Every structure is written in structure tokens, then in C-alpha cells.
Structures
1.
Amino acid sequence: MTIMRPALASLLRRTPFAATSAVLFVLSACTTTTGRTPAPLTTSGSTPTARVATGDGDRSAVRTPDARMERFVDSVLAGLTLEEKLGQLTQYRGQFGLTGPQTPEAGAVDIRAGRVGSFLGVVGAAVTREMQRVAVEESRAKIPVLFAHDVVHGFRTIFPVPLAEASSWDPAAVQRAARIAAAEGAANGLHWTFAPMVDIARDPRWGRVVEGSGEDPYLGSVMAAARVRGYQGNDLRDSLALIASVKHFVGYGAAEGGRDYNTTDIPARTLREIYLPPFQAAVNAGARSVMASFNEIDGVPMHANRALIDGVLRDRWGWDGILVSDYTGVMELLNHGIGGDTATVGRLALDAGIDVDMVSKIYFSYLPAEVRAGRLPLAAVDSAVRRVLRVKYEMGLFADPYHHSSEARERALTLSPAYVAEARDMARRSIVLLKNSGGALPLSKSLGTLAVIGTLADDARSALGNWAAVGRPEDAVTILAGIRQAVGSRTRILYAQGAPVDSADTTGFAQAVRIARQADAVVLVLGEHQDMSAEARNRASLDLPGVQLQLAQAVVATGKPVVVILENGRPLSIPWLADHVPAILETWYLGVQMGPAVADVLFGDANPGGKLPVSFPRTVGQVPVYYNHKNTGRPPDERERYTSKYLDVPWTPQWAFGHGLSYTTFAYEPPTLSATQLTMGDSVVVRVALTNTGTRAGDEVVQLYVRDDVGRVTRPVKMLRGFERVSLTPGERRTVSFTLRPRDLAFYDLDMRHVVEPGTFTVYVGGSSVDVREARFRVTGTTMVVPDRGLIP
Ligand code: BGC
């Protein structure tokens, strides 16, 4: 068999930048049924009798049909030639530079000929207006085109990278950030963003951990929904709304070895309980687009995975938006070894449910002949075109194709002071205080001399992080500049680079040590530059790159008080720093206002309240290390040899999921439950009181975890099922309550039924996944099947 090798390399492009819920079973809605295979109660597969909820089942994303829209879409579809239909399913990459204003002649020819339905990477009110004019005035079908771009954490006003925003545990703030990103992008002519990225990542070697919300499906679901609401607003017809594209469907973060694009090995139960929930949350929140992922699952590449795309997304969840391929994803089926020739992979992808072919141009070039030869039903093409036309209609583009292309709005909104102020607020909320021995932080603003050391302290481009859309380094305030602004003339600031981020060059050490010796305190900025995380930027080591650790050791050896600011796109293994440096702030990449936000926290104008959305391993050898692991038959016990642990490092992470300190302290009281004996179907309210026992106002993220103590399949030791970020003044006491509903306790049983089983459940409440107080309740009655409408329906 001859496999056509696509000219992949020529298409792969990247510029450096492109780069409580409540337990409420409605008893009347449930019927009692007998299980399929009654069997004795052994561990090997009996199916207990279970009640089953009726109704729409798992179809959480079904929308009310709009008859008027359907008539309109049918009438447009009826007037299209086969080629024009496939044109609607074709997405071109912009050939015109990112910001116009030149008339994109090459694009215009294709638009005029009806060969293209959407563009990736063409931005600017003027250029998009001109291209839209060609579409609606000069093409035969007169269908407006969509302009798409990766607006991931800001368009021009760059916000913290998604992992940083997730560290805020503040969905309202994250939603605001996405709203602003959408408004700015839409004012620059865009209709569609390829965000949010909701891939669960348990392996920090994978470069794309920076783009998501970390390791947990509940936190990931909350963040996914917040971002979708932010991007899309209340109404897609709003000129400042962007279509959200949830990506990458699905399992992409499970790449073996942390190597991007790699094969995954995901058990069906893990897929449903860990990887799918953030997608379901996003489509429940109304996301109108989903992007397929590059990986395969169980031998089937996602671009040909009918069972998951048509089966789960469309049939089981009832979702009807646009499914877009990833960049050349359709063509890459050839490399996966599926299909064998270009026409076949095009057919396979369309048949699996991929509506839009990004960049490969296979649909347009090969599928007309496949339809004419009877190998591809026209109905499959029509369904995909309908989905594209519906979204164009929902955006109001048939009524006003130009409503995102306003140069006045573009001028008024781009990098507006109000947006920049929001970026600073979001940045402050995203910072995590990992360690603070002896109150080393905050620093006084009237220190005589402060040494700032580290290349990253003065790296504006890294401050923006990867996937910074059209962000510019000159818009960003570096950490060094932020510190200078904050202290004014009262403190002398000395700066030395010390060492490049990722080379073995130690020539700058001497100067770094010299200024440290002259200073009253040292701020040492360490980590990874922005191009070391995101797509295809995987690392086999999680250590500080280059000679930064040695630099830190030389600086600490001066005996001066040192605080470390980490700037990085993934959890790093930094045991030496954890042991030898009194204070460590995790800042990730915070965007245009990185410097001021870091200075706010460094000098105590803001009190850090972020928490880790990912565990920090002690060494890469522990990976994967995540909080919601299984107990095993031999749970780790440092005193017992034959238990699940290591000889050379503790089995625990350096810093656990949910960890983060404050300049104040919080004392938790034991949680109380509304009931400790529940009948199957009841909800239980968990209340916990906490008091700010320190001297500063501060934020605490109260976290609720639950464990199903005994199941017919093993359950994780903890599962996050609620959280709330609260602000407390000194001495203030607050009670936070969470309601646990059946869906919060449910899991996929031996027969892959989504059930709650009777038995005991342990509830843990506290300020991190390991710093918790517990309570227990029992659910009595019969196993109940509950619809799986996601963790946040
Ligand atoms: C990435 C996607 C991105 C697309 C378009 C791909 O390489 O995997 O996340 O949306 O490019 O830029």
C-alpha cells in the first residue's frame, strides 16, 4: 500500500509567539429496575439492582430548536453547489500577515470562488471588512466568512496564561478576563477563538500544561464554563462576542511520556471521569465549537473517531455546534496510518463528524469527487454545512456581515486602560505563595538596597507567555520595571542577569553575587522562558533549566535574605529551593501587567490568595503525581517497605494540588453536615467555618473533597467537588456551605453505568488537598443510576 506523505513540514508553521453542588435525586423522576445481570456480590462483576433516572439522560447540551433559523439555513443550503458546500467546510490559514491592512488578494480569489468558509490568523477591522465585502458582494453564494484566531489569554491586552488564571480559583475573574479578550479580539474583526483549552494534564513534561487549568476535572470544568461564558457573552449577536472553541477533544493531555501529539492510553472509565467532564461543562455552558485533538485513543485518531465525536458529543450530550479539526489534523490521519490515501482520510474525518478542515484543504480538493462517486453521502456534507451556517446565523452575520469590523471600536478598545487594569487585577489573583518561612515576605518598600537577579526579571516577552495572540513585548511591564515603579526613589535597585535561562554560561554569576552582597535583600527570578512551554515544547526534565540552580546556590551562599519568584509554564522540580530559600512565589506568566502585579504582592499591597491547580513533583521520576489517585492495596507508608513508594524520594509531591499560602493565617473549624444518614437521592449540606487569625485582610480558597469509601470499582482517595474563594478581614469569621448532590458522588461502575452506591462517604474540607478536616455520612438504599450531565451541568 502506498501512503502519500503530505508536505507536512511546509504547513507546520509557528512564529515564536504563535505559539456543590446539591445531592438531589428527584425521586419521582426515578424508576426502579432490575439490573441486567443479577449476580452474587463478589468483586468480579455483579450488577446490583438500580433505580434509573428518566428524562433526557446525558443530553445536557440540547438546545431549543429555532424553526426560523432552520428554514433560513435550509434555504441557503439549497442554493449551494457541492463545491460551495465544501468551501464552507474549509478553513484557510491567513496568508496576509496578522494585522492587515493590505487587501488579501490571494484570499480574495478563493473567497470569490466559494472555496473558503473561514480563516485562521487574519485579524484587523479593515482587512476583515474588505475580505467580508468580497465574500458577500463578489462570491456567488454571498455567505459571510468567519475569522478565527487563538485568543487564548488576551488578544492584545495579554492576561495571565490559563494555568495561572486557574491558580486564582476565581471563576468570576476568569470569566471577566475571557470577556475582555473576546471584546478586544472581536473589535479587531474576529468571530471565533480557539479557546478555551480544557485538557486535563497530569504530566508536567507536556508543554501544553500551561494552556489548561491543570490536573483536576472539577476545577477544569468550572474554569471551562467560566471561559466559555466570558468569550461568548450572553448573545453571539453581540459585536463583542467570540465563538468559543473548546479544545482538544479529547485525551490530548494524556500524551505518553509528556511528548506532545503522542499516543495515549486512557481506560474508558478514566476517559469519562477525568478527561471528558471539562468538555461537557463547556458545551453545557453553550460553547458553539469544539476542536478535535491530534492524539489517538485506543487505536483511533480523534480526527477519525466517530464513537467519541458523533457518539459522545453529538448523540450522548446532544451538542450541535461546529467541530473543527486541529491544524492539518485531517491530513495527519495519513501519518497515523489510517485511510491510506488523501481522499479516504477526508471521508473518514467528515464521516467521524469533523465539520471544518483546518488548513489541510482536503475536503475541498478531494470530497466533491467522493460524493459524486457515491462513496460519501451528500447528507453527511449537508449536515456539516448546516452546522457552520447555523453558527454564522447565530452570530448575526447574515444580517450584518461587518459587525465585528469596526475600526472605531478597534481603536477604542485595543489595549484600553480599563482592560490593562483588569489584567493587573487578574495577575495579582493568579499568584501562589508556595513558601514563606519566618514572614520573609512581604518585603518592605524602604529597604536600603534591593538586588534583583535573573534574566527573566527583565524579559518582557516571557512575561506575556506563549499563545500571546498579537501581544507585544513593548506592552508588557517586566518584574524589574514593576519593582522599580513600586519602590520609587526610596530603595536603590541593583540588577544583574546572573545567568541565561537555558545555557551553561556562568560568567554572570560573579556580578550577581557582587550585587547580592551589596543588598539588604535579594529577589531572584528563576524559571523557564516563554518559549519553553506550549505546543511541542515538552521537557524530559522538570529541573530549573541551564545553570539557574547553581546561580541560586551562589546567591543564597551570600547569606542575604533571598526570595524566589518563579516564572514558568509547568510545575518544576525544585527541592533544593524548597529547602533553602525562605520564600517562593509562583507567578507563571502573568501578561502585560506582570511587573506591577508581582510588585503588589512582593511588597504586600496585595495579599496572595492563589492555589496550585497542579501538583509539584519533587523530581520528574515521580510523574505522574496527582492528588486524586487511587489508594492501591498497599497505600504508601514511609515506615513499611512493601508499600507503594520510592527508595530515594518521598512519594508525596513537593507541593500538593490546592496548596497556596497567604500573608495572613486562617483557622478552620471542623465541618458539619446537615445529615449523617442519607437516603439514596438526598442531598447533604456541608458547612465549614473559618477565621482570619492573622493581621492582614486576605483571601482563602475553601476546598471541598469527597471520597466514596467503598465501591464496586476502586475510587480515588479524594475528588474535588466544590470550592469558594473568600475574602476575610483580620478576625473575621465566615461560614461557607456546599451542597453535595448525587451527581457529585456518582461514578462509572463495572457495567459503565453512572451510579451512586449506598455506603459511607468521607468529606474533606480545608485550604489544600492535604490540609483538610473531615466528616462522614452514610447513604442507605439501592444503587441508583444517575444521568451523567457533567460535573457542573
Ligand atoms: C494547535 C491548536 C490551535 C491551532 C490553530 C494547532 O497547532 O494544536 O491548539 O488552535 O494550531 O492555531
2.
Amino acid sequence: MSQLIRTVTLPDGSQVPALGLGTWHMGESRGSAEAEIRALQAGIDCGMTLIDTAEMYASGGAEEITGKAIRGRRDEIFLVSKVLPSNASRQGTIAACEASLKRLGTERIDLYLLHWRGRHPLRDTVEAFEQLRKSGKIGAWGVSNFDSLAMRQVSALPGGENCAANQVLYNLSTRGIEFELMPWLAERSIPVMAYSPLDEGRLLRHPGLGKMAGRLGISPAQLALAFLLARDNVIAIPKSSSPERVKENRASADIALTSEQLAELDQLFPPPRSRQPLEMI
Ligand code: NDP
């Protein structure tokens, strides 16, 4: 029997599973909606109860799919959504959140992120996040695609100490954050949410990864995810619209890589040796 998925603790003490579900590209066509809902429900059934979505994805369509997938079981879910930078003014953030709540069919988003930094002053976005938090419409707030400098800037703002997560591009072939950003976040117990953990599927065609996974009797996706799950402060959010692949991804949380296996991955995908600009999709 599979074990429970290990949890990661947010700064406010909430425990969330280290492996969740992405939703980018869901809700783009009516024909695939049923399959997407089934895939998300298969993930929830096997403990992947953190769902990551955004108002941007399919212009709200992914939030609607998510809302349908969690109907009747909202209490099991840790729900993450994001405000677009163009909406992230003092008033715009509140309005965007209310529209997301409607599409999601819920009264609360557990973690609400600024999708990336835009033209609105960060101070205004943080003020709006704090207002949403105090009114209970969100449980916590965080950021996405923030490098170390932007993290320092947000933390220095009034209320900035409440930033609860930074969602960034992180996978075996994109390890730049390990040099500076990850240690900075770990020191402050701010989790990294690793987006595109399979490099949007590209990693799965890497010959070295395929070979090593074959030797271990696991799939390349499982090996790529197990690498991320070996890190304490990381939450991985792979997306799949197939219940079978969701279950395959879920099994990665039961794989404990040895230090030799992690060293072999370092040979295949060398860690950064210097500070790198933050990569994003
Ligand atoms: P992923 O790295 O999760 O890869 C998704 C792709 O891999 C899909 O094509 C999927 O196809 C395929 N896939 C998934 N599991 C398997 C498997 N076991 N075997 C083979 N193929 C597989 O990419 P995403 O960009 O979707 O990132 C994950 C999530 O992170 C997003 O969905 C989104 O929620 C978030 N994100 C956030 C960003 C941000 O700026 N904050 C930017 C990008 C993503 P299929 O569905 O057919 O299985």
C-alpha cells in the first residue's frame, strides 16, 4: 500500500502535500473537460490534494475545471490560484480574487499568488493580499517567478513577512535556483513550489534520465519528481490530464532516492556553480 505523501509546512504552520496537481492548459476545450476533471479527481483520491491553478489559464477555464473537480470535497483540498500582474492593483487584486472564487465555486483560496511581477507597485498588491487574508477570502498569499532581489523587496514591505511561498521554474534541467534563491527561502521557511517539474514533458525524452529510470525500474517522470521530492522545502505540481499518468506521478512520492542515486543525477544534470538569473516560462 502506498504511504501518505510527505507534507511541507508553510510559514503559518499549515501542512500541505509535497506533491500536488498542476492545471495549465486545462479548460481550453470542451471536449477534454471531462477527462481533465477525472484526472484531477484521480489525483485527489490518491492524496495529491494540493491543486495549483490561475485566472490566466484558459482565461478562467482551468479554475472552472478545478471547481468542478473539487465540488463536494472542498475540505480535502489545498487550493492555490494566482492573480495576473495586470490585475494586481489595490482594487484589481480584490476583484480578481472574487472572480476566481466564483469560478472555483468556493469561498476561500488557501494560497493566492502574484503570478509574476508587473507594473503595479508591489506594495499595493501586498496591501490587497493582506486585506483578503484578514477577510478570510484567502488563507495565505505568496509570489511566483520572484528572484532573490524581488524576494528581498517583497519581504521588506509592511505585511511582507507574511509571504508564504514562491512558485518558480524548477526541475532537473533548470537548477539555477539551488545556488542562491533556495537557501534564502529555506532560511525563512518559505517553500519553493516547483512548476514545470517535468520541464513540460521535455525532460522525459532525456536519454540519460531514461536509462537511469529503466535501471531503477521506475519511469523517467517518477525519477524527475523523486529528485524534487528529496528536497525538504519543495512542493512539486506536475500537470497531467490522464488519470493513469497522475497515478504514475503519485507513486514518485513513495520513492526515496539514495545519496548515490542523487549524485548520479548531479552528473547528468549538474547543479549551478554560480548565481544565475531566474529562468521562467
Ligand atoms: P509539467 O512539467 O508538469 O509537464 C506537463 C506535461 O507533461 C504535459 O504535457 C503532460 O501531458 C506531461 N506528463 C505529465 N505526467 C506525465 C507522465 N507521467 N508521463 C509522460 N508525460 C507526462 O509542466 P507544466 O508547465 O504544466 O507545469 C506544472 C504546473 O505548474 C502547471 O500545470 C501550472 O499549474 C504550474 N505552472 C506555473 C507557472 C507559473 O508561472 N507560476 C508556469 C508554468 C506552470 P498529459 O497532460 O497529456 O499527461
